[in-house]
Amino acid sequence: MQPGVTNENVAVIPVVFFDVDTQRDFIMPDGCLSIKGADRIEPNLFKLSDYSSTKRVAWFSTMDSHVLDDMEISSEPDFKTTFPPHCMNATAGEERIAATFHPNPLVLDMRTRSPVEPWPYIQTHFDSIVFKKNNIDVFSNENLDRVLSCVKPSVFVVFGVATDFCVKSAVEGLLLRNLKVVLVKDAVYAIDQDVEKFLFNDWERQGVKLMATEQVTNLNPHEFEDLFK
Ligand SMILES: [Zn+2]
Q: How large is the angle between the packed helices 193-205 and 168-176, nearest 10 degrees?
C-alpha cells in the first residue's frame, strides 16, 4: 500500500509551516530560473527549519516539477504565464536548497491517491509532506485539499518564493478557504519588489499577519492562533 491520507481521524494541529518552492532553480544564483537576490533569505529559512524540528511543527512543502510538455514551459517565455525550462523532473534544479531540505518526506504528486493512512501515521513515518505541482497554483494538486480535510492546522505560516507568483497563489488559495495565514516577510522573496509591497498591504487588509522570522521563532506553536484573536 502507498502511504497517503484518509478522512478518518481528523487531526487539529496548532500550526503548519508552509514552505513554497524553495528549490535550487529559483534560489541559487546559478539556478535555471534564479530570482536575483533570493538567496538572501537562506539564513532565515535555516532558522525556520531549526524551529520546526525543535518544536516538532508540521512542515508542508510545495515543489515545482516539470516536463517539457507542461503549459508553463516555453522556449519563448513571456515570464508571466510561461517560463523557460526550470525545476525539470529528476534534475538537481528541482531539489530543495539545504536550508529547507527534509530527508524523509511523503511526496504527493499531482495524481490523486486513494485514501490510506491517517495523520498520526504520516507524522510518525515522515518528516514533511511535499505537494508536487506543474504550474503556479499548488492547490491544483488535489492532494493538498485532501490532506487539509483530515489535518486541520489552526494557522499556516507561509514563506518561500516567489512572493509575486507561487507564494501569492498559495496565500490566496488559503484565504479563499478562510484559513489563518502568517506571512514571514523576511523569508519570502519577489521577482518584482514593488509588487511585493503591494501584496503585503493587500494581504494585511485581508487579515494576513506579516511577521519577521525572529518574531515567528519567538512564539510557541500554540501561540500563533492568539495572533488572530
Ligand atoms: Zn514552474
A: 10
Q: What's the 64 CA to ligand 1 centre distance in angstroms?
A: 5
In order along its 229 residues, the chain shows pLDDT tens digits of 344 555 557 899 999 999 999 999 999 999 999 999 999 999 999 999 999 999 999 999 999 999 999 999 999 999 999 999 999 999 999 999 999 999 999 999 988 776 657 888 999 999 999 999 999 999 999 999 999 988 999 999 999 999 999 999 999 999 999 999 999 999 999 999 999 999 999 999 999 999 999 999 999 999 999 999 9
Question: 79 alpha carbon to ligand 1 midpoint, in Å?
Answer: 11
Give the domains, in start order, of the chain with CATH numbers: 11-228 (3.40.50.850)
Residue 181: closest CA among 145, 219, 210: 210
Q: How far is the CA of 226 from the centre of ligand 1 (A)?
A: 35
Which contiguous run of DSSP H or E holds residue 159? strand 151-161
